[in-house]
Amino acid sequence: MRNMPQGQLRVYLGAAPGVGKTYRMLEEGHRRADRGTDVVVGYVESHGRAQTEALVTGLEAVARKTVEYRGATFTELDVDAVLARRPDVVLIDEMAHTNVPGSRNAKRWQDIEELLDAGLVVLTTLNVQHLESINDVVQEITGVPQRETVPDAVVRRADQIELVDMTPEALRRRMAHGNIYKPERIDAALGNYFRVGNLTALRELALLWLADKVDDQLDRYREEHRISESWETRERVVVALTGGPEGDTLVRRAARVAARSKGADLVAVHVARSDGLAGDADPANLIRQRNLVEDLGGTYHQVVGNDVPKALLDFARAVNASQLVLGASRRSRFAQLFTPGVGATTAAESGSIDVHLVTHERVRRGRGTPGLLGSALSLPRRLFGFGLAAIGLPLLTFVLTRARGELTLPSDILLYLAWVVVVALVGGLYPALCAAVAGFLLLNYYFTPPIHLWTISQGENILALFVFLAVAVAVSVTVDRSARRTREAASARAEAETLSTLAGSVLRGSRPLPALLDQLREAFGFTGVTLLERRPEAPSSPDLRRDKDSWRIAAATGDQPCLTPSEGDADIPVNQDIALVLRGHPLAASDRRVVQAFAAQAAVALRQERLAEQAATAGTLAEADKLRTALLSAVSHDLRTPLASARAAVTSLRSHDVVFDEYDRDELLATADESLDRLVRLVENLLDMSRLQAGVLGTAVQAMSVAEAVAKSVEDLGQAGHDVGIRVPDDLAEITADPALLERILANLLANALRYSPRGRPPLVTASEHGGYVEIRIVDHGPGIPVADRERVFLPFQRLGDRDNDTGVGLGLALSRGLAEAMGGDLFPETTPGGGLTMILRLPVAVPPPAENAADPAALARIEQWRHGGEETA
Questions:
Q1: Helices assigned H by DSSP within 78-122
Q2: How far apart are alpha carbons 765 and 785 in whole angstroms?
Q3: Which residues form the Histidine kinase domain (predicted)?
Q4: CA 406 to CA 415: how far, in whole Å?
Q5: Could you say which of 134, 161, 333, 335 has the lowest number of CB atoms within 10 Å?
Q6: What is the pLDDT of residues 573-592, one digit of tens each?
Q7: In degrees rounded to 5, what are phi and psi of residue 443?
Q8: How many domains, the chain?
Q9: How far is CA 837 from CA 711, 769, 801, 834, in A?
Q10: Could you tell me if 388 and 326 lie in one domain?
Q11: Are residues 60 and 204 in the same domain?
């Protein structure tokens, strides 16, 4: 079979059970059968769905294989029977299924691969939660572990993948109508795995995974057909950064271009040289610009290449970019006469990519890099080189004049050239150039006929001397450039090590600023490092560098923090309001660029700390102001009602103008008593809410039974609680909660549910375990609450227009949620299928669930799943 042509695989991918994968697969089977294709059903699980069973009956089905395991009988796909039948197309459901131990293969996808190797066409189904790469993500979202997985590579090799999509709301309606599971399993499924949030997240995972598959197919197609031009399937704007100060302007311009192209991706790229040298790239600028790109929602990349235009275009084509943003050249007009520059070259070779050349303030101002004539060697070495030239050349001339008859002019030229090379190796460019010119003159005067004259009689001697001069100059330049590159490489290596340490220190700890300054002090041997920021009230003037009242210390490390920028041995201004001050020794010019990177990162860390402090302060003040305003409103309105009723009753009893009989007196006393009780409850609620807001509410949590807490809360409702339905499993895990607070929450939720439930449809209380939590659901079929108002009901003193005196000041749900959160839980609403509102109280499980059977967890989990007759509903 291995020599047969490989079969084709078509996968129907769904976000969750019930979206219609099996139905779609069977429809395709019927369509192919109607065209005369030989189609059989290898294995299809209908789960009791009438519409699915109707489609199965219209196709030929291969008999399943019966397998005995631990006293039970199961049926599996019979691979041998399918191979013996050899249809054109075979339909196989549940690709991720784990076969019963003793089967031909451990997994059904392995059965499918065997059929594909035999040349058959296979149609199969798969849910996105069974993909190996996102298995852990699905478990984190849903709280349900997926033990049956399929390697992504197996699915990606499929010839076709069709997404079977359905909105979460439509899927839940199908569930509520009984089109997916049996009625007794619907409530558990809707309340757990099939929640709107879970389904939305799973749907997004399926779409993103399939989008990656489509991108892979597109890239493979372009590669196979050798298509190098960008296809504008999705707008991507690439901005090229050199590390110069103009990068901020380019990033913002590129972000505006991306914003105008709705949904466009922003990508920044910096081309580094393959020798590791930074050139004119400033690390501080690159750090700042990278942060800016990420703040604008883009991504930052760095590629290596000596040919910058080619590297930029290769990267842009690799990411399928549609637009490329570059800065106008900083090179002078004179330099552009020799080479057109990166921008012009990139635009000429860009092909289908649109290139934007953005002007900036640094245009044609030069790069500021050392020129050709700048020496990379120290002054003592250059002086020694001049000495070698001044002493060595006369000495060499004396020796050669003594051996005039034994050596020819070419030999003299080679000896002079060798001495020029020695001078270049020792002293660098300038001494070597002087030695070359001096050697040219000495050769002309002493060794070129006519001797002792500054003339040359033979043309070939003119050529020889000028070649000598050219070679000597070239060797001098090459040696000096090599020395410069060696020095730059050593400096770049040191900078790279320092910056990598900088990055590591920033990532460690929750407050990176002190660690950053410590790292800077240790790396450069300073005794103190201070980060200063200008006081808000201080004017922005350079004359105030010595004014202590204009600056304040943001962070400091080492001895004697500096109070102004002028007190240090060196200062690095980050901007007009922040400066990094160094104490201990002057800052070397070669180290300034790395220190600027530290300063830029320190400013970012300071900004993050300030934003975090402002957010915390603003949140606290906003909550306090909201509570104070609401409290005043409650005291001025809602608290007055029971107080007025009690006062009116007491005043009437004390009145001598009216004589009350015994019945009237009892009624007035009862009114006063009830009003004062309501007033006490309102005050208690206010005090509890105050304690919650202040974070001082004490809780006595312990392990307790949900069933007992629910029963006690229903009993406290009196006669009204007799209508409440309760479905709490006896084997439900215990929870961690404060019994008194839990009963208070449940009593409030049940009272609300009873108040809004229609006649004949009382509330229902259910409970189930989900991802380490127990969820208690209070279900009513009343009018419900609009989605836009659901969070408002949890605000203190908010009753959405309900002004009944029994409802108090609107603290019930707000206090209930606060109490739930104080016990490590949560309280949130959902729509009841069919209409109404479901309040879900989630509290942590007290004891973790028992471990799975280690003997064969996958098989036992699958057996348990079959026993319940369907897919995941946990």
A1: 79-85, 108-117
A2: 19
A3: 634-847
A4: 14
A5: 333
A6: 877 778 888 888 877 766 77
A7: -60, -40
A8: 6
A9: 21, 20, 17, 10
A10: no
A11: yes
